[in-house]
């Protein structure tokens, strides 16, 4: 039997940098919500409100309209596309390309919609690009790690949240960076030559 992960309710308040919107944010934080302060143009006011609430022990972040979406897609989708395009031009025949996706796609965790959408694009490009390099003996695969005990993953999570993720796989632990490095090293090596256009979910069986 698994125990539900204790999480605060989350609210996104639009037009929240001042006036009624700001007061709604204050009330929701007071009631225990983690609040995303959405705004159109008054960045300084939104950041000041977020700082005020965080100083009082609340949980609030200020996020510009579409900013997170644009930033995430710029890194994960456009960045991968540019890398693949340059690899096609510069990589010697017989080479290896390994993209990075995420097992969060399979876990379907709430709050990961933008991130998952960007990584879904990576998974879509991977097998297509493998076929576009036909005749050059270049393999194109992706690795989709599950939760891994890195500083990025652990920062901002409570011990209860970390333990929840550690219990997801039947191996009952978080992944380690070495676990993922080993999979990528295999895909980059000579013995993986018959694996092409695939997504390897390195997550200990959690998804």
Automatic annotation (TrEMBL):
Keywords: Oxidoreductase. SUPFAM superfamilies: NAD(P)-binding Rossmann-fold domains. The keyword DNA repair does not apply. The keyword Protein biosynthesis does not apply. One of its GO terms (molecular function) is oxidoreductase activity, acting on CH-OH group of donors. Pfam families: adh_short_C2. Belongs to the short-chain dehydrogenases/reductases (SDR) family. PANTHER family: NADPH-DEPENDENT ALDEHYDE REDUCTASE-LIKE PROTEIN, CHLOROPLASTIC-RELATED (PTHR48107), RE15974P (PTHR48107:SF7). This is 3-oxoacyl-[acyl-carrier-protein] reductase FabG. It comes from Paracidovorax wautersii. The gene is fabG_9.
């Amino acid at each position: 039997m698994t125990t539900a992960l204790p999480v605060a309710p989350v609210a996104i308040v639009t037009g929240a940098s001042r006036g009624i919107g700001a007061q709604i944010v204050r009330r929701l934080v007071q009631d225990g919500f983690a609040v995303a302060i959405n705004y159109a143009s008054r960045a300084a006011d939104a950041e000041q409100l977020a700082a005020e609430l965080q100083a009082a022990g609340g949980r609030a972040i200020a996020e510009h309209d579409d900013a997170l979406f644009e930033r995430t897609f710029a890194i994960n989708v456009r960045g991968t596309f540019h890398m693949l395009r340059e690899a096609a031009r510069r990589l010697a025949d017989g080479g290896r390309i390994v993209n990075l996706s995420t097992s969060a796609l399979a876990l379907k965790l709430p709050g990961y919609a933008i991130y998952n959408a960007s990584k879904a694009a990576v998974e879509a490009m991977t097998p297509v690009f493998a076929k576009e390099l036909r005749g050059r003996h270049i393999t194109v695969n992706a690795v989709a790690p599950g939760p891994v005990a890195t500083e990025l993953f652990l920062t901002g999570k409570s011990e209860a949240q970390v333990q929840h993720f550690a219990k997801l796989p039947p191996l009952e632990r978080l992944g380690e960076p070495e676990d993922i490095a080993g999979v990528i090293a295999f895909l980059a090596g000579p013995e993986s030559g018959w694996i092409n256009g695939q997504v390897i979910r390195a997550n200990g069986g959690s998804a």
